[in-house]
């Protein structure tokens, strides 16, 4: 989880997954949750995150919605992606 906006860390992760072919393998589930690119009225942080869909309840819902339907079968581990820093 990272507080960012469009074009930020989540976009870089999606780019890396695409570059490495990880998204082609199937079963990889990625959800980016970002701050909206709109004007937000000032309020308490809790209320602003809730309005943006970035409060704990919305994050848990996004994570659960990304899970496969319960079938009683374990999914193969082919959706595990290792992200390492490239040497500079």
From TrEMBL:
The keyword Transferase applies. Its EC number is 2.2.1.7. It is an enzyme of class 2 (transferase). Residues 69-88 are annotated as: Disordered. Pfam families: Transketolase_C. Residues 2-59 form the Transketolase C-terminal domain. Keywords: Thiamine pyrophosphate, Transferase. Its cofactor is Mg(2+). One of its GO terms (molecular function) is 1-deoxy-D-xylulose-5-phosphate synthase activity. PANTHER family: 1-D-DEOXYXYLULOSE 5-PHOSPHATE SYNTHASE-RELATED, 1-DEOXY-D-XYLULOSE-5-PHOSPHATE SYNTHASE, CHLOROPLASTIC. Homodimer. This is 1-deoxy-D-xylulose-5-phosphate synthase.
């Amino acid at each position: 989880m990272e507080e960012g906006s469009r074009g930020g860390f989540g976009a870089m992760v999606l780019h890396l997954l695409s570059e490495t072919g990880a998204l082609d393998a199937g079963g990889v589930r990625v959800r980016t949750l970002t701050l909206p690119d709109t004007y937000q009225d000032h309020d308490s942080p809790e209320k602003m995150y809730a309005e943006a869909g970035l409060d704990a309840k919305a994050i848990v819902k996004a994570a659960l919605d990304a899970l496969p339907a319960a079938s009683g079968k374990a999914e193969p581990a082919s959706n595990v992606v290792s992200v390492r820093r490239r040497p500079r």
